[in-house]
Amino acid sequence: MESVRRIGAYGLVRDGDRVLLVRGSARCHFPGVWQLPGGGPRHAEHPAHALVRRVAEETGLTVHVLGPRAAVADLVRLPDRTCHVDRILFDAEAGPGVLRVDADGGVAEAAWFTPDEAGRVPLMPFTADLLGLPVTALPPPVPLPPPVPVSAGAGRDVADQRQRFAAYGLVTDPAGRILLTMIAEGYPSAGRWHLPGGGTDHGEQPVTALLRELVEETGQFGRVLELLDVDNLHDPAAVGPEGRPLDWHGVRVVFRVIIDTPTEAVVTEAAGGSTARAAWFTPQQVGGLRLTGVASRAIGGHRTRRTPDRPIWPTSGRVGR
């Protein structure tokens, strides 16, 4: 059975004690099951921007993204494949608009639910878990008709488009030092200092992947404290080990991590060759380093403030390495 991966952005949109949910139509694999509104970002689209677009398409409402709440993953077993979905969950609030659905889309109904009401309808597991409700098994997925074939010559560059989900950490120790890794030669941004972390494996949770990468790249055992940020990178001509330019879209979640008992930072063979060095730095030392974009942003103290009167996040739709 084929294994595929997807990225999705979903919103916990509140109105007082009520939350906005949408019900799948006959055009989705789980018709009649409710979930948080949202869906997959387009190539190069920031997940937060994708959420705003998808909520408007699905419900007619304008939403303001307040900040990231969680990053989780799950496996959805479909009739013809197993799909790993990396789900980024945002806090959001509803703005202007009239609640309605597009009859031609994948949503049959949109409605506001109290916690008690949500507990009485079938929910996608990630939605039930986020709402603190019991997770129940999904019904058997409904097969969908195959997609319409793309005409010859249309989208000929699609094969060169790649999307990657990764988890990174702003890693510190009790003394306030910051742990960084240097990107090896042959990889984009070679020679720059980067946040520890990397791509997640099929079926792997983002936090689990980050802690695994932390051991492989630095030899440290850490504790994940909170989700700090969602970083978006679009590089239409990235040259890496493949030896040819590729149109890369990277979605990176950044967690705050503490190392309670730090040791000397050591790169292991399991790091796969992309990490040349690892080291601890004081905040003063970091100021003189060549950093990747995501490392500079995280170390610079970017934090999501949950402000109810205006959308303040993300600060940019395109963030460099």
Counting DSSP E segments of at least 2 residues, the number of strands comes to 14
The fraction of residues in strands falls at 35-45%
Oligomer state equals: single chain
Structural class: mainly beta
The average pLDDT score comes to 88
Radius of gyration: 21 Å
SSE series: EEEEHEEEHHEEEEHEEEHH
Give the distance, in angstroms, between the N- and C-terminal Cα atoms: 35 Å
Number of helices: 6
The backbone outline, from C-alpha atoms, is globular
Low-confidence stretches: 150-157, 302-321
Helix percentage: 10-25%
Major sheet description: 7 strands, mixed
Tell me what you see in this structure:
By secondary structure, the protein is mainly β. Helix content is 15%, strand content 40%. Strands 1, 2, 3, 4, 5, 6 and 7 form a seven-stranded mixed beta sheet that branches. It starts with a strand and ends in a 22-residue tail after the last helix. The model is unreliable at 150-157 and 302-321 (pLDDT under 50).
Question: Any descriptors?
Answer:
15% helix, 321 residues, 6 helices, single chain, globular, 7-stranded mixed β-sheet, 14 strands, mainly beta
Please sum up the structure shown.
It contains six helices and 14 strands.
Helix/strand layout:
Elements: E1 2-15, E2 18-24, E3 34-35, E4 38-39, H1 47-59, E5 61-77, E6 81-97, E7 107-113, H2 115-118, H3 125-130, E8 161-172, E9 178-183, E10 193-194, E11 197-199, H4 206-218, E12 223-239, E13 245-258, E14 275-281, H5 283-286, H6 293-299
Parallel strand pairs: 1-6, 8-13
Antiparallel strand pairs: 1-2, 1-4, 2-3, 2-7, 5-6, 8-9, 8-11, 9-10, 9-14, 12-13
